């Protein structure tokens, strides 16, 4: 929880007193900038993210060890006949063992990719986001949490939460961020005549912008949380303001 205190020394205060007040203020600011969501804070580097995400570290390492790699001639020579036949499938001329060894000597024979389509997709997202600098998000828990990186920093987190947990998350997030959010209840309706009011809570600080949405659409209810760095939020506001009008 954030403490509110006066970070300005009085005119009559001593330099020593001002020094300790300044240290206390800086410590408080450092504490404020540590709002953790799923064990992470927006603004942390990829290296910091991986240090506290051992499961994702393991998944990333597995992606590298499981991807196809060049086979050596010795590996091909030790393969069973069934392995040779499986490896030759899809290659021009369906080469025999000698043909495969020749390809291996040239460095062009790759191991079989035994990963599922889902594993390939997840690995591609991980490698692109954490190693190749892609701004596209990745998920590691069945599409419930999405991580966005830019310039090797975590700039946004999107969470899909359980329906009915809005109040619980509201209380918890208010404690984490340190102040009460601005709340609203916009009304909506659909083509079938149903009407409802969503609930929205927004926190805005020098560290982050967080938006908690309780979507009460009876056809598709959901509770979602988006947290982004203040810089990313300011940039999105600027882009929205500069977006041309449909009449332009």
Write the layout of secondary structure elements.
Blueprint: H1 15-32, H2 46-51, H3 54-66, H4 73-77, H5 81-88, H6 97-105, H7 117-130, E1 138-139, E2 145-150, E3 153-161, H8 166-177, E4 182-184, E5 187-189, E6 195-197, E7 199-204, E8 208-215, E9 222-229, H9 230-242
Antiparallel strand pairs: 1-2, 2-3, 3-9, 4-7, 5-6, 7-8, 8-9
Helix pairs in contact: 3-7
Q: How many beta-strand elements?
A: 9
Question: What would you call the structural class?
Answer: alpha+beta
Low-pLDDT windows of residues: 1-12, 17-32
Please state roughly what percent of the residues sit in beta strands, choosing from under 5%, 5-15%, 15-25%, 25-35%, 35-45% or over 45%: 15-25%
- Number of distinct helices: 9
The strands making up the biggest β-sheet line up spatially as: 1-2-3-9-8-7-4
The N- to C-terminal Cα distance equals: 47 Å
Largest sheet: 7 strands, antiparallel
Topology as H/E string? HHHHHHHEEEHEEEEEEH
Rounded average pLDDT: 86
Our Rg estimate from Cα atoms comes to 27 Å
> Residue share in helices?
25-40%
Shape: elongated
Keywords:
19% strand, 248 residues, 9 helices, alpha+beta, two-stranded antiparallel ribbon, 40% helix, disordered N terminus, seven-stranded antiparallel beta sheet
Summed up, what is this model?
With 248 residues, the chain is α+β, with helices and mostly antiparallel strands. The protein has helices at residues 15-32, 46-51, 54-66, 73-77, 81-88, 97-105, 117-130, 166-177, 230-242, and strands at 138-139, 145-150, 153-161, 182-184, 187-189, 195-197, 199-204, 208-215, 222-229.
């Amino acid at each position: 929880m954030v403490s509110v205190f006066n970070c300005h020394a009085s005119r009559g205060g001593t330099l020593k007193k001002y020094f300790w007040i300044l240290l206390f203020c800086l410590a408080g600011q450092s504490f404020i900038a540590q709002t953790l969501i799923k064990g992470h804070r927006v603004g942390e580097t990829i290296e910091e993210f991986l240090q506290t995400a051992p499961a994702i570290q393991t998944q990333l390492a597995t992606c590298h060890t499981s991807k196809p790699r060049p086979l050596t001639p010795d590996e091909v020579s030790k393969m069973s006949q069934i392995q040779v036949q499986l490896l030759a499938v899809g290659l021009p001329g369906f080469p025999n063992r000698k043909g495969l060894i020749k390809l291996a000597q040239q460095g062009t024979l790759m191991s079989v990719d035994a990963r599922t389509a889902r594993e390939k997709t997840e690995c591609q997202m991980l490698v692109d986001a954490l190693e190749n600098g892609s701004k596209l998000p990745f998920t590691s828990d069945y599409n419930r949490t999405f991580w966005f990186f830019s310039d090797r920093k975590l700039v946004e987190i999107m969470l899909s939460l359980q329906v009915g947990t809005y109040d619980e998350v509201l209380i918890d997030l208010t404690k984490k961020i340190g102040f009460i959010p601005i709340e609203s209840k916009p009304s909506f309706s659909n083509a079938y005549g149903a009407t409802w009011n969503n609930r929205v809570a927004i926190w805005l600080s020098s560290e982050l912008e967080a938006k908690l949405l309780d979507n009460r659409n009876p056809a598709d209810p959901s509770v979602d949380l988006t947290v982004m760095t203040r810089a990313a939020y300011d940039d999105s506001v600027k882009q929205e303001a500069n977006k041309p009008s449909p009449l332009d």
